[in-house]
Amino acid sequence: MLGNPYQRYRQVTVETASVAELMVLLYRRAVQVLGEAEGAIRGRDVPRAHARLVYAQEIVAELMASVNLEAGELAHQLWAIYDYAQRRLVEANVRKDAAIVAEVRELLAGLLEAWEQVAAQERASQAAPLAANA
Predict the structure, then answer these.
(1) Which whole number is the average pLDDT over 35-39?
(2) Are 36 and 52 in contact (CB under 8 A)?
(3) Using CA atoms, how far apart are residues 66 and 68, in angstroms rounded to an integer?
(4) If you compute the radius of gyration of the chain from its CA atoms, what whole number of angstroms results?
(5) CATH code for the domain in which residue 28 is found
(6) Taking Cα atoms as reference points, which of 22, 30, 2 lies closest to residue 89?
(7) Are 30 and 108 a contacting pair, CB within 8 Å?
(8) 10: part of which helix (H) or strand (E)?
(9) Axis crossing angle, helix 46-66 with helix 98-133, rounded to the nearest 10
(10) pTM score, whole prediction
(11) Whole-angstrom Cα distance, residue 68 to residue 58?
(12) pLDDT tens, residue by residue, 96-122
């Protein structure tokens, strides 16, 4: 068992989250990490920028792995977006280019908004039967 209550809370949150909620968590973290990478690049902190960009690439790789390509054209389009983001992050890391990082951050922020809407609709549909029974 984890000793830190915050770590335990995070673990329980992840273990009990729906797919949409997990996607929101991943996107939020990616957007946050990319903001940190931008700041590190602008501050000329190359080791931190590299570490943040590698971490963002890991998150995008996880997002790519989550796509069920048998689900149809939309899944293929989403995978292509992730592939593009991944390639741009590699380029940003090689060049230490904050503008490329900002581009990917904005791209993922847009997708985050969509997943937040999906998660909200999911919560609302789960709450409706509970409210009807109250």
Answers:
(1) 98
(2) yes
(3) 6
(4) 17
(5) 1.20.120.340
(6) 30
(7) yes
(8) helix 5-16
(9) 50
(10) 0.84
(11) 18
(12) 999 999 999 999 999 999 999 999 999
Per the rule left: phi > 0, alpha: psi between -120 and 50, beta: everything else, 72 is left
**Locate tokens 């990478």: which residue?**
37
User: CB–CB of 38/45 below 8 Å?
Assistant: no
One-letter amino acid for residue 111 of the chain: L
- Residue 3 has a pLDDT of 76
Q: How many structural domains does the chain have?
A: 1
Residue 73, SS3? helix
Range of the domain at 115: 5-133
Cα→Cα distances 98→31, 40, 53, 115, Å: 14, 9, 11, 25
Please provide residue 132's backbone torsions phi and psi, each rounded to the nearest 5 degrees.
Answer: -70, -30
Q: Are 81 and 111 in contact (CB under 8 A)?
A: yes
Q: How long is the chain?
A: 134
At 68, list the tokens: 């069920």
User: What one-character DSSP code corresponds to residue 3?
Assistant: S
Give the pair of three-digit tokens for residue 97. 């280019």
CB burial of residue 57 (10 Å; 0-12, 13-18, 19+): buried
